[in-house]
Amino acid sequence: MKTKELRDLSPAELNEKLVESKKEFFTLRFQHTTAQLEKTHRLPEVKKDIARIKTILKEKEAGA
Fold first, then answer.
1. What is the distance between the terminal CA atoms of the chain, rounded to a whole angstrom?
2. Does domain 3-63 have CATH number 1.10.287.310?
3. What is the pLDDT of residues 11-62, one digit of tens each?
4. Nearest 5 degrees, angle CA 21-CA 32-CA 44?
5. What pTM does this model have?
6. Residue 21 to residues 3, 27, 45, 52, 63: CA-CA distances in angstroms?
């Protein structure tokens, strides 16, 4: 997800996205461990998305 799109979301929506991303990351890690993951490029993408969301949440907290 793009940073610009994330900045337009409210903190509640960002928290929802964060939970979804963490669930997806857990599932991907589990599939990777059991050798069922086909799209291995998704692991770093989702990890970076989680970091982006956390960063934007912190920025919004500091700005509020």
1. 24
2. yes
3. 999 999 999 999 999 999 999 999 999 999 999 999 999 999 999 999 999 9
4. 45
5. 0.90
6. 14, 10, 10, 11, 24
